[in-house]
Amino acid sequence: MTRFDTVGRPWQRVFELAWLSLCRGSKAIAAVITDSEGNIISEGRNRTCEPGLPNPAAAHAETEAVRELNISRYPDVHSYTLYAGLEPCVMCMGTLVMGGIRRVVIGARDNYGGAMKLIDVFGFAKQRGIETVCSDRIIGEMQRAFQTLRELLFNTDMDKLSEMLEDFSVYDRKGVEAAKALVSEGLFSDREPSSFTAGEIFDLLAEKIDWEE
Q1: How far apart are CA 154 and CA 24, in angstroms?
Q2: Cβ distance 179 to 205 under 8 Å?
Q3: Buried b (16+ CB within 10 A) or exposed e, 101-128
Q4: Which of 171, 169, 196, 199 shows the shortest CA–CA distance to 183?
Q5: Which residues pair with 104 in a beta bridge?
Q6: Measured distance CA(74)–CA(88) in Å, rounded
Q7: Long-range contacts made by residues 207-212, C-beta under 8 angstroms, separation at least 24?
Q8: Which of 5, 45, 86, 88 has its Cα between 20 and 30 A from that of 64?
Q9: At 104, is the secondary structure helix, strand, or coil?
């Protein structure tokens, strides 16, 4: 079984931030940027359901990570890598292109809103030579599992919930089913999500997934 302490620090931080977003009611999606040596130099998380922002709908993880990158301190932008828990949407794809990022590692592919394929559609973006890499399967399953937990805990629109979970399952069905199992077993019936760490949730989900299937 893959455990949280084996996935590498960039992905650990992505899930820590995604869990923080979930605990605050936002979407469980996060991103980090690393330098050429693998050090995390910027990060962002989804804040779309949190108060205090002029327009929270635009507070997506990748956009936040690129916006927070201090190019005065870290000027060699083209050599950096953005780790995205979920395939970037149109807005985030455009932001990373314009922000100078040239390598993107994706956790979970997004059948509905993912936009990285559009890079090859627009000449301006295509000329940037952006490399897109899909992560190991465990990361994709866990990303969708975290997102599923968020929707099961906070989404009261049953029709929309059903549609979302169907979409999550296109590539990462096992993660979705693992999250459903944790909730149905009453893990959160008498404990707030914030009483768990991201690592604890990751490991509990991993125990539910049959990787040999």
Answers
A1: 10
A2: yes
A3: bbbbbbbbbbeeebbbeebeeeeebeeb
A4: 196
A5: 82, 132
A6: 22
A7: 207/1, 208/177, 208/178, 208/181, 208/182, 209/141, 209/174, 209/175, 209/177, 209/178, 210/174, 211/1, 211/2, 211/137, 211/138, 211/174
A8: 5
A9: strand
Q: Determine contact, residues 15/202, Cβ cutoff 8 Å.
A: yes
The letter for the amino acid at 16 is E
pLDDT digits (tens, 9 = 90+) for 21-41: 999 999 999 999 999 999 999
CA distance 89 to 98: 14
Residues 88 and 96: beta-carbon distance below 8 Å: yes
The predicted model scores a pTM of 0.96
Digit-coded pLDDT (tens) for 58-85: 999 999 999 999 999 999 999 999 999 9
In degrees to the nearest 10, what's the CA dihedral of 62, 85, 28, 10? -90
What is the reported pLDDT for 122? 87
Q: Tell me the pLDDT of the chain averaged across its residues.
A: 95
For 70, the token pair is 């201090």
Q: So what's the pLDDT on residue 2?
A: 87
* pLDDT value for 62: 98
The residue type found at 3 is R
Residue 159, beta-bridge partner list: none
